[in-house]
Amino acid sequence: MNNSGGDVRDVVIVGSGPAGLTAAIYAARANLRPLVIEGGAPNLPGGQLMITSDVENFPGFAEGILGPELMEQMRNQAARVGAEFLTENVSDVDFSRRPFHLKTDGEREFDANTVIITTGASAKWLGLPSETALYGKGVSACATCDGFFFRGREVVVVGGGDTALEEANYLARMASKVTVVHRRDTLRASQIMQKRAFDNPKIEFAWNSVIKEIKDVGVGKVTGVVLHDLKTDETRLLPTDGVFIAIGHSPNTKLFAGQLQMDENGYIITTPGRPLTSVPGVFAAGDVQDTLYKQAVTAAGSGCMAAMEAERYLEELEDEH
Ligand code: NDP
Asked: What is the mean pLDDT of residues 197-205?
């Protein structure tokens, strides 16, 4: 591995979801020897698809594919065409100097002519003390990881988007009953996901409701949720064995605070239609800069764009010298 003071890497990719790995495939095939700093514990290389079950909307898989399998294929493809991988987390970046400088939590340092940021987004939490206390004791944000534990039992899913309904549908395969708790009376999820959930006899809805508290911290496991009906102002206890939080995501951009322009929610601002950030030579692709589509296939597409932009930028850099 190149440490600071040694060779300057042409392309360093931070993150290893569909955006990062597609950028790696394109950069490697352009002979740019990309280094993918793919993330290590507590992060999961591969990103959000590693905690997704069936992926039915990624083109090329007529029968669908499991999220982790799709990511393994992408990683193997990137490695086969020459991408290098480092299973560590980037802990510090300096985009104010050229070449750019990156440090990892494994005490490695790299200089890079271009950086492609594909750090994605992470699940949001409700922020209740009981949610934190019962995390891993019946509270989860990943049905495919933890659904198995709720075979024949009752669970609650919080949220009204595609993630919530996907989790609900998945959990309904094993749970005896799934109650989707949503703060409004209409869902944000796509029509096809809504129809699937409405048609599933195991799935019920608690409309206009929010969770005030998850019971029972004293017992050390989930026994129910205290629901507040926002329309009637009534409060009731809904007994349940598990609570799955599926209320969206926030971008993983803390590392870049003060270095790149971001919007009020922390998403990296890119030039419309292009993966250019506020710093020339630093590119962003995938969910870390996408407030609109957030799909694996759009992330992959923007990763391709970022690699092509990096290649063009490097050519210009060479012309200058
Ligand atoms: P979304 O932002 O689409 O939905 C979040 C949901 O959680 C909303 O219904 C929102 O309510 C609710 N919510 C947010 N904050 C809170 C809170 N504090 N308390 C209670 N409820 C809250 O996120 P998703 O993760 O569902 O989806 C993200 C993107 O990924 C979307 O573009 C989606 O289409 C896509 N996706 C696609 C899938 C597929 O095609 N198979 C699968 C999963 C995701 P409200 O509606 O009132 O704002």
From this structure: 98
